[in-house]
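Tutorial handout. Part one gives the primary structure; part two gives the three-dimensional structure as tokens.
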Amino acid sequence: MTIVRRSLARYALLSIAGAILTIGLKGWAYQLTGSVGLLSDALESVINLVAAVLALVVLIIAARPADACHPFGHEKAEYFASGAEGLLILVAAVLIIDSALPRLFDPQPLDQAGLGIAISALASLVNYGIARVLAQAARRYESVTLAADARHLMTDVWTTAGVLAGVAAVTLTGWHWLDPAIALAVALHIIWAGWHLVRDAIDGLMDKALPAEEQAALVQVLEGYCERDRVQYHALRTRRAASRRFVSVHILVPGAWSVQQGHDLLERIEADMRARLSGMTVVTHLEPLEDPVAWDDPGLDG
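Part two.
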């Protein structure tokens, strides 16, 4: 797992290279046209670069194996990248609003709009290709950081599409106020995207339980043992740290069983759970079925 996680850094390097290229293209388009909409698009690409560098650092940290100070691994560091990327998107939105509002009250004509549109469209195609690569890698390796970066880049693609439509509309209609209006619409859109990234990062840092469908898969495993071996379970708890899943559960077996019997059963249950969901650490606790105290769930302090 650690070796695989280390290989994810190459995707962050791809994102960095793409961000540098798109900053150059979009900056060029803004210089040619003077469009505040294209300026807002270029500002978001600067945020993309900062986020990609941060993603590289975090992916290197997350790939470190567990140690004495971090016995549960370093994967949770990915949530910091996701949250920081969301915050950076919100910063970009503020910068866009600050640039667009003055132009809304003092519209300016655009220069060389056709060439500017073509250059920005090329930059958008670069972002789209990189976003697809990152999204596929995020699903394959269950990387929160790559998923956030891919979502950010796709937001950038849609942002550029909106901006280019606005610039084209300004050119065709002569309504120069459309340019800053489109920029403000872009800012509102990326605020929405940034908030979702921040919210997801907070959920991860707060040890949110596994999704309902994954919990259902674990319950199915446990219920199967309840039927076959006449045992019971309770106190099922789950959480996730990026690609790593953590599960704890109490298993109640007949008090007459030997320690070896109980141990063998727990080994089978843990193996079946890990087979259903990848990257999972399972902690089981053995209790006597007949003891009423065993059914008590003292919670996290128990």
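Part three, for discussion. The mean pLDDT is 84. The CA atoms of residues 162 and 174 lie 17 Å apart.
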